[in-house]
Amino acid sequence: MSRPRRERRSVVGVEAVGPYVLVRVARGGLDPGAPGQFFMLEAPGRVLPRPMSLCLAPPGELGFLLDPIGPGTCALAELEPGDSIHVFGPLGNGFRLDVERPLLVGGGIGLAPLPYLSEALERPPAVLGFRSEWHAEAAALVPNAEVVIDPVLVTDAMPRDRAVLACGPEPMLEAVRALCPDAQLAWEAPMACGYGACYGCVVEIDGELKRLCVEGPVLCFS
Amino acid sequence: MLLLNASGCLDALTAPDVAARFDAFVTKTVTPEPREGNAPVRIAETDHGMLNSIGLANPGRVVFLGQTLPRLVRTVDVPIWVSVGGFSVRDYVETCEQLTRDDVACVELNLSCPNVDEAPESAGEIVRACRRMTAKPLYAKLSPHSWDMGETVRAVEDAGADGVTMINTLRGVALDTRLTTKLERGVGGYSGPALKPVALAAVFAARRVTALPIVAMGGVQDGRDALELIACGATHVALGTVLFADADAPSRVRAELIDEAHRAGFDHPEDAFGAAHETVAKLAN
């Protein structure tokens, strides 16, 4: 597994993707890690960094897709090329890639790790769900994707005979898991440190508390 | 001067490299019984700090002594301080009684976690009972909520404490856009940069009534913050919330502290010890 490093990296691009924002930083000595792993991004002016799974890893860069809805993600979305922020990672456990007939499933900003995952798995089919056409503009980042818009759900469109790798809101993950108990699911929780120090990022799954930063964020229950 | 981590803010088994950069590692608080901790959501950022509601998640005394502590001893090269918690004087006493390994350099009694119910006994009573059970250095970790910090410090000193640790987090609440609490438990422990003046005041008050060593923490982000705590009377300094944003903080703060001492006209950080009290002394005269 790649050893996490913390480096101050220059922002090389900030682009809107529908309502989302793609922040690209110079890679420097940071390893992109495995798809599904995440990085802690310094959010300027905020006390805590923000966990972001790697979205794209073009040569010399790391790209992060975020939804600017809170003070931290808005601070990140307001970065400009030439600014620099501390980036720490890769952290956590990513997706297992030794799967037959993979299917990527994403909901909303949960598509963030899927472009990098798609590349690693040689562009398998994907099903992506969004709340609006505007949000669905982000589907362009994922090759071979079928898009559904609310009220149609990803679980309505998912073929059942494939190995599912999914990321999205908790109700979507629970619904996917009900259909595909072997699915690999990337979870999300408020996180302070990202490296197992604070015990803040637990989620309760089947009555058990899981520390997402070190036990996840990708969990599989089979 | 020692640089330590604040209890609860670092797990040396998952981040041994970070723990190795301190002069001593302080464990998460161990309680008699295992505790999963509070239900999520457990953390929330605020404008100038953060709230936590971890709730002393720990494997309990038996597993800690039989498994966690031996692993810590094998993993961490720096002295180990064990943070002890409980819900009655008996809880504290029984854990102290069993912390006999030579590897335990110090016992810190957590008398002030805002995320669990408090023991009914006073800080002084708990320290007095633990003092009878252990010959190890015994520190009392105090809450900033006491109106008269001096009185609390005198009480634990009279009870036999070898030092005091201050401050634990303040109680705080954060609301989301729907005006419901961000934390599942509602109230959490408030930490981060906003606490610095509170920590400075607590250390300042404590130093006026005691010559005991003080481990000071609360809002330290950089070397200047650490130097200010020393100027108020801290013997040692601990880092908490800053570790979440910067795992390299121990090395950084240590280097900055030396530079900041020079900038303030001192050869060494320790030379600034108590400097802030000179203003008050002049006023008194």
CATH architecture of chain B: Alpha-Beta Barrel
| Greatest interface and its participating residue counts | A-B, 28 and 34 residues
Provide the CATH superfamily of the largest domain in chain A.
Nucleotide-binding domain of ferredoxin-NADP reductase (FNR) module
- Backbone CA Rg of chain A: 16 Å
- Please name the CATH architecture of the largest domain in chain A: 3-Layer(aba) Sandwich
From the N-terminal CA to the C-terminal CA of chain B, the straight-line distance is: 30 Å
The CATH C-level class name of chain B: Alpha Beta
CATH homologous superfamily caption of chain B: Aldolase class I
Low-confidence stretches of chain B: none
Estimate the helix proportion of chain A, in percent: 10-25%
Which oligomerization state do the chains in this entry correspond to? heterodimer
CATH class of the largest domain in chain A: Alpha Beta
Number of domains of chain B: 1
Order of strands side by side in the largest beta sheet of chain B? Answer: 1-12-11-8-7-6-5-2
Broad structural category of chain A? alpha/beta
How large a portion of the residues of chain B is in β-strands, by DSSP E? 15-25%
- Please tally the β strands of chain B and state the result: 12
How many individual helices of chain B? 10
In N-to-C order, the SSE pattern of chain B is EHEEEHEHEHEHEEEHEHEHHH
Task: Report the count of strand segments of chain A.
Answer: 14
Give a quick precis of the structure.
The complex is a heterodimer of chains A (222) and B (285). With 222 residues, chain A is an alpha/beta fold.
How would you portray this structure in words?
The complex is a heterodimer of chains A (222) and B (285). Chain A folds into 2 domains: 5-91, Translation factors (Elongation Factor Tu (Ef-tu), domain 3, Beta Barrel); 102-220, 3-Layer(aba) Sandwich (Rossmann fold). Chain A is 14% helix and 35% strand. Chain A contains 5 helices and 14 strands. In chain A, the strands form 3 sheets. A 6-stranded antiparallel beta sheet of chain A has the order 4-3-6-1-2-5, covered by helices on one side. In chain A, a hairpin with an 8-residue loop joins strand 3 (38-41) and strand 4 (50-53). The longest helix of chain A has 10 residues, at 170-179. Chain B has 285 residues and is an alpha/beta fold. In chain B, the strands form 2 sheets. Chain B has an 8-stranded parallel beta sheet. In chain B, strand 3 (43-45) and strand 4 form a beta hairpin. Chain B is globular and about 50 Å long. The chains are: A alpha/beta (222), B alpha/beta (285). Chain A binds chain B through residues 6, 42, 46-49, 71-72, 86, 88, 189-204, 209, 214, and chain B through 8-11, 14-15, 18, 28, 36-37, 39-50, 52, 54, 57, 192-193, 241, 243-248.
